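User: Just a sanity check before I run the rest of the batch. Below are the structure tokens for the first item. I only need the designed sequence back.
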């Protein structure tokens, strides 16, 4: 499960930010997970609950996971859209000349620290 290595890195990042900002505790971790990121949200949440126990800084942290839908730009009609299903065509004009603009990555968006 690559979610374990992702969570280890996430907790390391949180600890680094806490240290850089003189905080002794991270109370909330907000992440954005794209639907095409390859990350399984349930496994990520389970891994976070498991690994945070070993961190003095993140032990009580809450994970807030925001799932990012797939957003596209259509070169055919020039419009931005959100895909409701895994069908890579523009929902407005049915063109296949699209570029994915969001929903492929995972980002640390915000930390609440004390």
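Assistant: Here's the designed sequence for the first item:
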């Amino acid at each position: 499960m690559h979610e374990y290595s992702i969570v280890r890195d996430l907790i390391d990042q949180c600890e680094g930010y806490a240290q850089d900002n003189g905080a002794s505790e991270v109370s909330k971790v907000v992440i954005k997970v794209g639907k095409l990121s390859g990350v399984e949200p349930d496994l990520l949440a389970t891994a976070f609950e498991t690994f945070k126990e070993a961190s003095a800084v993140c032990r009580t942290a809450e994970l807030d996971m925001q799932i990012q839908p797939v957003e596209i730009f259509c070169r055919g009609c020039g419009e931005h859209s959100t895909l409701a299903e895994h069908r890579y065509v523009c929902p407005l004009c049915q063109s296949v000349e699209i570029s994915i603009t969001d929903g492929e990555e995972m980002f640390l968006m915000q930390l609440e620290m004390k």
